[in-house]
Every structure is written in structure tokens, then in C-alpha cells.
Amino acid sequence: MSAPGSALVERTLAIAARQAPDAGAVATVREVSEAVVRWANSTLTTNGQTVERRLSVIMLVPLDGGTGAGVATVPAPTALAAGPEGDAVIGEAVAGAVQAARRAGPARDAAPLPASTDGDPGDWHDGAGETSMAVFGRLAEELGASFRPDEASFGFADHRVTTTWLGTSAGVRRRWVEPGGSVEINLKDPATGTSVWGGEGATDVADVDVTALVGRLRDRLPWGRRWIDLPAGRYETILPPSAVSDLMIYMAWSMGGRPAQEGRSAFSRAGGTRVGERLGPLPLTLAGDPAAPGFPDLAYTPVLATTYSGDEVSVFDNGATTGRVEWVRDGEVATLAYPRAAATEYDAPFAAPTDNLVLTGGEDATLEEMVASTERGLLLTCLWYIREVDPSTLLLTGLTRDGVYLVERGEIVGEVNNFRFNESPLDLLRRATEAGTTERTLPREWKDWFTRAAMPPLRVPDYHMTSVSPGR
Predict the structure, then answer these.
(1) What is the model's pLDDT at position 441?
(2) Is 169:20 a contact under the CB 8 Å cutoff?
(3) Burial class (CB within 10 angstroms; exposed 0-12, middle 13-18, buried 19+) of 49
(4) Helix crossing, 210-220 with 137-146: angle to 10°?
(5) Helix (H, G, I), strand (E, B) or coil at 210
(6) Which domains are assigned to the chain?
(7) What is the DSSP string of 344-404?
(8) Can you give the pTM of this predicted structure?
(9) DSSP code for 416
(10) CA 214 to the chain's CA centroid
(11) What segment(s) does the record annotate as region Disordered (predicted)?
């Protein structure tokens, strides 16, 4: 049986202290228990359950001129049970991290590790959280009942429970358990070839109402019975919450303070950054908050744990307490991401990337109500294959997918061809003329990395469809 995560962290820190007594150390154990179900053509194709555990060791080594940081990550199965064999594996990881730190040289983001302020948490020695195939009981029952011979159902459901133990040589000891999952469903009409997609994220996939989700998708299938070819161009477009989330997530990932200060990002401007600049007329606020007020299933643990350093995050900040960050506040750029060292250098507040994103400030209007008030425009379903074209403007390109619909005089009159688009989420916030009600949503493109999102639908008067994309 595997050693408890807390015991593995403590052994790692003890071995690190013996091998490199002058160095700082961070040890993290992450255990992921995951269950998945996949189906195609209304038939179950794959299901399974896995457990993966990894140990990460970070050594912060004093060097001439500063401190170097090195990281080593190893699988942590039963081979790391207490005993000489396990200690040898840990010792090799510590030695590898020390060697990597020396090779890397003094780190620009060096800072003393945050000290513990919470004492020994009561759950430190608890075991890992678990999931199992039983979590899909309701889904399987409702999904099976939804299958029809005149349509094909495809989809994927995932539930995972991630347990993390974080310990540092500065005395931090934290354990947290984060469950999460998602359900995605495609329905396809063989007669027309039209395909529709819908998805939901949830802490527990048993909370997803599959019957209701399938019903909403089925209501959209008739929209594809009339096919309308449209050329590329700029169209008034309504982006549903899922599409908005994919764009806002990429923008949040690009809000590094150092790149902005150094003139190499879309948040740079002459003499500084765009903090304080107004983006557009709508009083929108894009925030990340561990407490997730209004959306409790988006909550996450307010402590930083990372195994890499970059422009937005630093291994030297492991164990730091994090809180609410408003990236955009009332329509203005409010905050950029700074590790503690960069925050000191640029006299800015420390702000780490957040594990959820909520966009608020719109009107009390549903997606359906926004469609009903549209004279002529497009309604998207979701975005796909998003890639960056120009980091200086945050210009992105990508494809529409699984349903683009023409709206005329408040009614959906048919399905149109897919498009490739070129847009910057920054420019979209500048040009958006309406935002609706914020709701929990599932990103289509980024869901494998980021699922905690709540967004409103957005109306953009001139969304840029640069070319027609063949296929439905």
C-alpha cells in the first residue's frame, strides 16, 4: 500500500535537509483518482478508472549571486513505501533537483519561501479522496433512456478527485481535495448531417441533469434542416457562455505583469502597462476567487502550489496564501499576474493565476432573450482549435463548431456554414454591446486544463469571420 501523502512529503523534506542543509525545499504529492465513460453511435465504447500519484521535489539552492531553483518529479507508487528502497528513489530526486538548480544558476524570481501562518492543519495526515464508476449511475440511466434510433449520440464524461499535500522547509503544511468533472454530449441527425454539442461542468457529475441537457440539444437539431451558405465577413454575433469562457481563459493566461512591463504583451503600453485602461462601455468584471461567491462549486483552495516558474508564477511562492483577484474591474484592466519577486521589482501587488474565472456585470438577459432581440446576426455554439496569432494584440484564430445559426427578426431561420475567425478577447470586450446573465459553463477548448468558469453570453456587433470552414 502506498505511503500516505503527508508521510511522503515529510520524508522528502527530511532527506532534502540531510542532503542539502543550506537549501530550501518544497515537496508536493498529487494523487488523482479518475473515472471516465465514452460512447459513440449511441453505444458505450470505453470506460475505466485510474489512480495516478506523483511526487515533486523543488530545491532552492544558495549560489554565488543568488538562489537557484531545480525541480524533479517522479511517479510515487508503492515503490515509495517506507524503507530503504523508497528513500533511495527520493534521494535521487533530491539530488537531481539540486543539480538542476546549480546548472540553472541564480533565479530572477528568487524570494524567501512563505512562512507558515496556519499551523498544522487537522487533515494533514488524512488519505486521498477517491472516485469510482459508481458516480456515473444516474448518467448511465438517463443517457440510455435518451438514445433514439433516428439520431446518433456521442459523448464523454469524466470525474476526478485530486488530492494534494504540500510541505515546505518554511513550515507550510497543507492538504486539500478538489473534485471536478464534466459531461459532453453530441447529437447528430443522420438525415441532415447536422451536429449539436452541449456540456456541463460539475463538482459531482451525478448533479448533471442529462435528460435536460439532451432535451436542449434535441430542440436545436431541427435548426439544421435548412442550410444557408454565408460568405466570410463581419457579423453581429451572439457568443454563448461556453465560447466566452474559452476566450476569457486565454486572456487571463496572458495577463503576466513582467511581459507587460517589458513591452512584449497585449497589456503593454508606452511607459508601462494597461492597468487602469478602460476597455469598453460595459461595466464587466473578470475575477478569480477561491471562495467563488455565488458559484460554490467553483471554489478552490486558497494556497499556491506550483512545480514550475514563469512570467506569472514562481516556485519560490509555494505555500503563499492567495485570494480574490479582479483582472478586469467595471470595464477597466485592474490587475496583472506577478510572482512576489516581480511584484517587489515593479511595485505591484502579488497576484497568482486563479483556478476559476467569473465574468459579471451584464444585464438580466438569457441567451434566448438576446436572440429574440436580434434583427439579424449569428448565434454560435462553441469555439474550437484556438491558437494565438499575434501576442502583441492577443489576436487569436480558431474555428466555430457544432452549429452556427442565422437569426432574423428574433428567430433562428437555419444553420449556416462554419467559419475560421480572427479575434482578440481584449478587442471583444472593447466592442461588446451587450452581456447577459452569468451562468456556470463548460469551456469547449480548454476543459482539459480549466473547468471552473461562469460567463454571460456576449453580443459583438462585428465578429470577424475570416474564411469559410467546410464541413458541419
Answers:
(1) 97
(2) no
(3) middle
(4) 30
(5) helix
(6) 5-213 (3.30.2290.10), 226-472 (no CATH)
(7) HHHT---BPPPS-EEEE---S--HHHHHHT-SEEEEEEEEEEEEEEETTTTEEEEEEEEEE
(8) 0.94
(9) E
(10) 25
(11) 104-129
**Rounded to whole angstroms, how far apart are CA atoms 131 and 442?**
21
> What's the pLDDT tens digit per position in 358-367?
999 999 999 9
| 133 vs 135: CA distance, rounded Å | 5
394-431 CB burial, b ≥16 within 10 A, e <16: bbbbbbbbbbbbbbeeeebeebbbbbbbebbbbbbbbb
- Strand (E) positions, 214-259? 227-228, 233-239
Q: Name the strands in the sheet holding 66-75, side by side, starting at the edge strand that comes first in the sequence.
A: 66-75, 43-63, 24-40, 152-168, 173-188, 195-202
pLDDT for residue 119: 57
Whether 420 and 464 have beta carbons less than 8 Å apart is answered as no
Q: How far is it, in rounded angstroms, from Cα 69 to Cα 458?
A: 43
Q: Smallest Cα–Cα separation from 197: which of 447, 450, 365, 456?
A: 447
Q: Are 292 and 322 in contact (CB under 8 A)?
A: no
Count CA atoms within 13 Å of residue 121 on its CB side. Answer: 16
Complete DSSP assignment for 13-51: HHHHHHH-TTSEEEEEEEEEEEEEEEEETTEEEEEEEEE
What mean pLDDT, rounded, does the chain reach?
94
Specify the DSSP class assigned to residue 291.
Answer: T
Q: What is the pLDDT of residues 233-283, one digit of tens each?
A: 999 999 999 999 999 999 999 999 999 999 999 999 998 999 999 999 999
Residue 342 has pLDDT above 90, yes or no: yes
H or E, element range at 269: strand 268-269
**If pLDDT is split at 50, 70 and 90, which confidence band does 1 have?**
very low
- Here the contacts of 43-50 (C-beta below 8 Å, separation 24 or greater) are 47/133, 47/136, 49/131, 49/132, 49/133
- Cα–Cα distance for residue pair 402/199, rounded to 1 Å: 12
With cell 524567501, the residue in question is: 112
Over residues 376-387, the pLDDT tens digits come to 999 999 999 999
CB of 230 closer than 8 Å to CB of 413: no
How far from chain centre, in Å, is Cα 240?
Answer: 18
Contacts of 134 (CB under 8 A, 6+ apart): none
Evaluate if residue 453 carries a pLDDT over 60: yes
**69/59 Cα distance (integer angstroms):** 6
Instruction: Quote the pLDDT of residue 213.
Output: 97
Q: Which three cell numbers stand for residue 338?
A: 506577478
